[in-house]
Amino acid sequence: MSYWRGIIHKYREFLPVEDSTPVITLCEGNTPLIYAENLARTIGFKGDLFLKYEGLNPTGSFKDRGMTMAISKAVEAGKKAVICASTGNTSASAAAYAAKAGLKAFVLLPKGAVALGKLSQAVMYGAKVIAIQGNFDDALYIVRKIGETMPVEIVNSLNPYRIEGQKTGAFEICDALGRSPDYHFIPVGNAGNITAYWKGYKDYKRAGKIESLPRMMGWQAEGAAPIVKGYPIKNPQTIATAIKIGNPYSWQPALQAVHESKGLIDAVSDEEILHAYKLVASTEGIFCEPASAASVAGLIKLTREGFFKGKEVVVCILTGNGLKDPDTAMKVCEQPITLPPDVEKVAEVIHL
Ligand SMILES: *Cc1c(COP(=O)(O)O)cnc(C)c1O
Q1: What digits encode the pLDDT tens for the residues 285-319?
Q2: Residue 70 CB partners (closer than 8 Å, separation 6+)
Q3: Which of 116, 200, 308, 351 could potentially form a cystine with 167 if both were Cys, beta carbons 3.0 to 4.6 Å apart?
Q4: What is the SS3 string spanning 291-326?
Q5: Is 143 helix (H, G, I), strand (E, B) or coil?
Q6: How many angstroms separate the CA atoms of 79 and 304, rounded?
């Protein structure tokens, strides 16, 4: 049988698993790499632009790639419970994979700062949800303290198996293109994913699967841009809640990825993020969540500045699904109009 059985099955030789490792999977990965010609034309980008739509993973974000590894290894180690701090997507993913594995899941969320779709996932999958009266960084601090003293596995991206699983996104991109991209654009929050992708590209090059490496281009939100500024942000602010992080755990490895690949980490404003968010949906028919659009916002910014020569192959990672955060969509878009049940009135509006 050749049906898709998830990233561990597909990329086993590149992952720290044994034949005896129990594989807990929801068939994550195998997400589409979409040629985005309309978006490229609209923003004046002359090269080849691809969007890796990670919002089509089982719980709607790339976190599932890391979670299948983290949960499988937790089961292998005999753990009975997992815990994480989350801006929403990690909790949704941890809760789902824990449900599949029969583990208890505890998730700590910054109160009032998690999109409703993500919160509803965590509760539906049966996690114990604890809202912390603080921000993500406060929640992660508590999780790390509890992980030191209680018999519970931390499944945040400080768990090295998360990074291992997430690097398979790079494998899929290279498998699809038959090469590596020239530039890899990606949103940066806790900075685990940029770290993971860089590791994936390097692993693939070492294995002889690709000849060159992409430049890693990371994007933070202006109000939550500690890596760009060079110091932790006490009270990070951005509409893009999935990257609303003031003191990223993988700060150093992210800087190393950027340094080794001759890339960069820069910031985009909430306005630029929302513009990109709407453009991806209206030109390509792809609904991503606001944080995801930071990668495209970065591409728009550099294109406008004349950064590209015109023949580059660029991949932007769309990290999560727009359906997780309908509130933001309804706030930034044209509102539906209400009319009486009257053919004439409707025809007036359609006006073709
Ligand atoms: C987690 C997440 C990010 C940030 O990824 P990091 O690994 O924390 O840098 C970006 N977008 C979405 C949708 C996410 O869920």
Answers
A1: 999 999 999 999 999 999 999 999 989 999 999 99
A2: 82, 94, 97, 153, 155, 159, 161, 162, 165
A3: 200
A4: HHHHHHHHHHHHHHCCCCCCCCEEEEEECEEHHHCH
A5: helix
A6: 50
For a pLDDT cut of 90, what percent of the chain falls above it? 98
Please state the rounded mean pLDDT for residues 255-266. 98
Q: What are phi and psi of 107, to 5 degrees?
A: -125, 135
Residue 1 has pLDDT above 90, yes or no: no
| Rg of the chain taking only CA atoms, in angstroms | 20
Q: What phi, psi does 332 have (nearest 5°)? A: -100, -5
Ligand 1 atom at minimal distance to the Cα of residue 186: 10
Find, among 98, 114, 92, 110, the residue nearest to 153 by Cα. Answer: 98
Per-residue CA distances from 351 to 293, 336, 343, 346 (Å): 32, 16, 12, 9
In ligand 1, the atom with minimum distance to the C-alpha of 320 is 13
281, 250 contact by CB (below 8 A): no
Residues in the chain: 352
For the CA of 191, the nearest atom of ligand 1: 9
| pLDDT score of 2 | 84
3-state SS class at 110: strand
